[in-house]
């Protein structure tokens, strides 16, 4: 694509050089630059892309977008100065990849918990409706049936537009994506057109990045503020910030709830570890999910599908066939008669939701043993709260290692233990080795008990000192069950 056409999408302050040249690719990582590429120098949280302009030129960049022009200009390179490269990069990528969201219906899901489940279930549902569908999620990205591994909840704007461009080129009619607070704050979704947005809930998370809960809330809200009037904004009426999210949106507002009358109303009639019987808008449906938080997620899926023009009866029929997402309330049954549940719950609220769901089914007929840790180099303030919530709702708790990253596992464990009373400590063990912690929980469990292994869910690794070592909670449990 011609450079002059690519830069039409942004406000240019100054141009040095020729814009009548073909651009073969667009990058914000100088290591990926090839001949004929456009390099965008973005000031990130870790590094400033302006420091890598010369390296990008050495690798063949023929054009540079930056906020500050270098002292020495290369006569063969075109320099485009803009006020904000972080804001520009998404718009440039959208233009370069042919404005993919003008060719498909993109729905974004944001909130603290439930994003992966809702986005993945919508992807699975619309494929069952017979469409080609794309998915951008924490677990994996998909272009219809093709899996593309992922490292971030929301990719960088260039990767994002490249994936969406491939989805559009391969005939996808819909795409569903998780929209993280980081991606909104860092303008990674700039230039994308959304057909709809879904708000799940908001509780404490990512304060290591946002610093305050108010900043975190504002980042989530900004997504809805920017939705066009042609889109829908579906919000959770059961969350006290549900109405705040959509108060300034131009989109058509709709609500879902397990407690109040609204467009999409639900109720749990019966529950067990095999699933629930729900009432959704006065129609009964059996679903293969457990817990009120999942009932809320399913209402969001139902509401979004209806807002995208599907008939309620058809939506309910497919809803009854859907299965839980990997690592989200994933239940395994032991030969000894106890149940183990693997769940991604890594925030206090998510942990409470899962434990509540377990108690709703158990009704006091068995004990709950919780294995839980907290990630290293992340919000330290939630560590003691995680331990408190686990102790409050469990008969035994084993505090262990999660992804320690560059911290010492025992330091993280000590931060968690600091939130516990002497009374709590009577039922708490700390075992830094996660495999040993899970094995100990299984040794403690008796028929009718439930073990919750929380924090990692779908992840098949443990990140220690910058290295990802293979580790899968479900694999560990299956191995223990085989040897019982």
From TrEMBL:
<feature type="binding site">
    <location>
        <position position="186"/>
    </location>
    <ligand>
        <name>UDP-N-acetyl-alpha-D-muramoyl-L-alanyl-D-glutamate</name>
    </ligand>
</feature>
<feature type="binding site">
    <location>
        <position position="30"/>
    </location>
    <ligand>
        <name>UDP-N-acetyl-alpha-D-muramoyl-L-alanyl-D-glutamate</name>
    </ligand>
</feature>
<dbReference type="InterPro" id="IPR013221">
    <property type="entry name" value="Mur_ligase_cen"/>
</dbReference>
<keyword id="KW-0460">Magnesium</keyword>
<feature type="short sequence motif" description="Meso-diaminopimelate recognition motif">
    <location>
        <begin position="402"/>
        <end position="405"/>
    </location>
</feature>
<feature type="modified residue" description="N6-carboxylysine">
    <location>
        <position position="220"/>
    </location>
</feature>
<feature type="binding site">
    <location>
        <begin position="111"/>
        <end position="117"/>
    </location>
    <ligand>
        <name>ATP</name>
    </ligand>
</feature>
<feature type="binding site">
    <location>
        <position position="455"/>
    </location>
    <ligand>
        <name>meso-2,6-diaminopimelate</name>
    </ligand>
</feature>
<feature type="binding site">
    <location>
        <begin position="153"/>
        <end position="154"/>
    </location>
    <ligand>
        <name>UDP-N-acetyl-alpha-D-muramoyl-L-alanyl-D-glutamate</name>
    </ligand>
</feature>
<keyword id="KW-0961">Cell wall biogenesis/degradation</keyword>
<dbReference type="InterPro" id="IPR036615">
    <property type="entry name" value="Mur_ligase_C_dom_sf"/>
</dbReference>
<keyword id="KW-0133">Cell shape</keyword>
<keyword id="KW-0067">ATP-binding</keyword>
<dbReference type="GO" id="GO:0005524">
    <property type="term" value="F:ATP binding"/>
</dbReference>
<feature type="domain" description="Mur ligase N-terminal catalytic">
    <location>
        <begin position="22"/>
        <end position="97"/>
    </location>
</feature>
<feature type="domain" description="Mur ligase central">
    <location>
        <begin position="109"/>
        <end position="305"/>
    </location>
</feature>
<dbReference type="InterPro" id="IPR004101">
    <property type="entry name" value="Mur_ligase_C"/>
</dbReference>
<feature type="binding site">
    <location>
        <position position="459"/>
    </location>
    <ligand>
        <name>meso-2,6-diaminopimelate</name>
    </ligand>
</feature>
<dbReference type="GO" id="GO:0005737">
    <property type="term" value="C:cytoplasm"/>
</dbReference>
<feature type="binding site">
    <location>
        <position position="378"/>
    </location>
    <ligand>
        <name>meso-2,6-diaminopimelate</name>
    </ligand>
</feature>
<feature type="binding site">
    <location>
        <position position="188"/>
    </location>
    <ligand>
        <name>UDP-N-acetyl-alpha-D-muramoyl-L-alanyl-D-glutamate</name>
    </ligand>
</feature>
<dbReference type="InterPro" id="IPR000713">
    <property type="entry name" value="Mur_ligase_N"/>
</dbReference>
<dbReference type="InterPro" id="IPR035911">
    <property type="entry name" value="MurE/MurF_N"/>
</dbReference>
<feature type="binding site">
    <location>
        <begin position="402"/>
        <end position="405"/>
    </location>
    <ligand>
        <name>meso-2,6-diaminopimelate</name>
    </ligand>
</feature>
<dbReference type="GO" id="GO:0071555">
    <property type="term" value="P:cell wall organization"/>
</dbReference>
<feature type="binding site">
    <location>
        <position position="180"/>
    </location>
    <ligand>
        <name>UDP-N-acetyl-alpha-D-muramoyl-L-alanyl-D-glutamate</name>
    </ligand>
</feature>
<keyword id="KW-0132">Cell division</keyword>
<dbReference type="GO" id="GO:0000287">
    <property type="term" value="F:magnesium ion binding"/>
</dbReference>
<comment type="function">
    <text>Catalyzes the addition of meso-diaminopimelic acid to the nucleotide precursor UDP-N-acetylmuramoyl-L-alanyl-D-glutamate (UMAG) in the biosynthesis of bacterial cell-wall peptidoglycan.</text>
</comment>
<keyword id="KW-0131">Cell cycle</keyword>
<feature type="domain" description="Mur ligase C-terminal">
    <location>
        <begin position="327"/>
        <end position="457"/>
    </location>
</feature>
<keyword id="KW-0547">Nucleotide-binding</keyword>
<keyword id="KW-0963">Cytoplasm</keyword>
<dbReference type="GO" id="GO:0051301">
    <property type="term" value="P:cell division"/>
</dbReference>
<dbReference type="InterPro" id="IPR005761">
    <property type="entry name" value="UDP-N-AcMur-Glu-dNH2Pim_ligase"/>
</dbReference>
<dbReference type="InterPro" id="IPR036565">
    <property type="entry name" value="Mur-like_cat_sf"/>
</dbReference>
<dbReference type="Pfam" id="PF02875">
    <property type="entry name" value="Mur_ligase_C"/>
</dbReference>
<keyword id="KW-0573">Peptidoglycan synthesis</keyword>
<dbReference type="Pfam" id="PF01225">
    <property type="entry name" value="Mur_ligase"/>
</dbReference>
<dbReference type="GO" id="GO:0008765">
    <property type="term" value="F:UDP-N-acetylmuramoylalanyl-D-glutamate-2,6-diaminopimelate ligase activity"/>
</dbReference>
<keyword id="KW-0436">Ligase</keyword>
<comment type="similarity">
    <text>Belongs to the MurCDEF family. MurE subfamily.</text>
</comment>
